[in-house]
Design brief:
The complex is a heterodimer of chains A (about 110) and B (about 280). Chain A is mostly helical and about 110 residues long. Chain A has 4 helices and no strands. In chain A, helix 1 runs antiparallel to helix 3 (about 60-90), helix 2 packs across helix 3 and helix 3 (about 60-90) runs antiparallel to helix 4 (about 90-110). The longest helix of chain A is centred in the C-terminal third of the chain and has 29 residues, at about 60-90. Chain A is elongated and about 60 Å long. Chain B has about 280 residues and is mainly alpha-helical. In chain B, strand 1 and strand 2 form a beta hairpin. The chains are: A mainly alpha (about 110), B mainly alpha (about 280). At the A-B interface, helix 1, helix 3 and helix 4 of A face helix 1, helix 3, helix 4, helix 9 and helix 10 of B.
Chain lengths: ~110, ~280
């Protein structure tokens, strides 16, 4: 859990520093809502974008992968708990963990 | 202000919010969102997205320590997460269709409710496992709390269904406003289900991250997560929470709490005012 948080925080920091170094003197664009580009809407798009060398300069993709890893931390916690209960033979709590995971999956992939 | 200075200022403010939040026991979201909206003029939707990510960051950092110490009750946490995650998805969907002004008003009211709940006295009304709600016994929810002197205290769980319903409301608020709604989760577990306070805070911490993750998927698809904003906020709050936890033994927490809750009440009224105009 702590390692996952540290890895994601490091990726976010790298992406942010890279982004800021390329935008010295630029204006912040956070005031007005425009919605983020399509490739930030799902994890696959983010990874594709970050690995696309033709889109070099899209430093925020690195930060977004860090953010996505951070967001993945709670579902992984639930998954590990579910697996733990399954190995203990506690089917009821393995099922409850599965229900929570399904709700989380609906939120991310619906 | 140029982009680098803007992000440094946002990061510094988030760090400050993380330190304060950790010292007085309030999560990042309830402080960060009004700070970003009122001080930096950021759109409420971006502010909510960034705050929700910071909530997950702090929850992930703290949950590991609580689990290691054996204070969290995972069974209660997972069972109640069914209510909070479903509520969070409902809240997040609602957030995408509600008007920003109405959201600002709801946020202000939720802030005032949080202040009220934080000021409420929390009497220790521990139940014995045998006195638990029959459904809680069936679900094997009563647990044991390791005490500082090395002994183990068993505890029971009361009023499971009302607690489950309040948790659903806490989930809706989390998804709707981009907050952890820890105060509402503590209300359900501490006051309604009569769990020991340590178990309540530790279990609530685990649940806050899972609940926030349920709504953040919807926020992601609606474009509420701006990485240029989320990055300094998440890093600032994470670092702030880390420093705050280390300052806890020496900081004048009571004075800070009084000053801060007064400030939060003022911010709540400002958010309501902003929503009305």
């Amino acid at each position: 859990m702590v390692t996952g948080t540290l890895i994601s925080a490091s990726l976010i920091a790298i992406g942010l520093v890279w982004f800021l170094s390329a935008h010295v003197g630029g204006n912040p664009g956070d005031h007005i809502f425009s919605g983020e580009p399509k490739y930030f809407e799902n994890p696959f798009g983010m990874v594709r974008r970050a690995l696309d060398w033709h889109a070099a300069g899209e430093q925020l993709s690195i930060a977004m992968i860090g953010i996505f890893l951070l967001l993945l931390n709670p579902p992984v916690r639930v998954l590990l708990a579910g697996v733990g209960y399954l190995m203990e033979g506690n089917r009821m709590y393995a099922l409850i963990s599965a229900v929570v995971l399904v709700v989380l999956a609906i939120s991310f992939f619906w | 202000m140029t982009e680098p200075y803007f992000d440094i200022a946002v990061g510094a403010a988030s760090f400050f919010a993380g330190v304060l939040g950790s010292l007085i026991g309030l999560g990042g979201g309830i402080i960060i969102t009004p700070l970003l909206v009122l001080c930096f003029g950021i759109d409420l939707r971006y502010a909510m997205g960034a705050a929700l990510c910071s909530v997950i960051a702090t929850s992930s950092g703290a949950a590991a320590a609580y689990l290691r110490d054996g204070i969290s009750n995972m069974k209660i946490g997972l069972f109640l997460c069914v209510a909070t995650t479903v509520g969070a998805v409902c809240g997040a969907i609602l957030a995408t269709v509600l008007d920003q002004s109405l959201l600002a008003i709801i946020f202000g009211v939720a802030l005032l409710a949080t202040v009220f709940l934080s000021l409420k006295k929390k009497p220790e009304t521990r139940l014995l496992p045998a006195e638990s709600d029959p459904l809680a016994l069936k679900l094997d929810l009563p647990g044991e709390l390791p005490e500082p002197d090395g002994t183990i205290s068993p505890y029971g769980v009361a009023a499971l269904v009302p607690g489950f319903c309040v948790m659903w409301v806490a989930g809706v608020l989390s998804g709707l406003l981009g907050i952890g709604s820890g105060a509402f989760k503590v209300l359900a577990m501490d006051q309604i289900m009569r769990l020991p306070f340590k178990v309540t805070t530790a279990t609530s911490n685990f649940m806050i991250g899972v609940t926030a993750a349920a709504s953040v998927g919807i926020y992601l698809k609606k474009g509420y997560l701006d990485p240029a904003l989320v990055s300094p906020v998440a890093l600032g709050v994470l670092a702030g929470a880390f420093v705050g936890a280390r300052l806890l033994p020496v900081a004048p927490v009571k004075l800070l709490r009084a000053v801060f809750l007064t400030a939060v009440s003022f911010i709540a009224l400002q958010m309501i005012w902003k929503g009305l105009h």
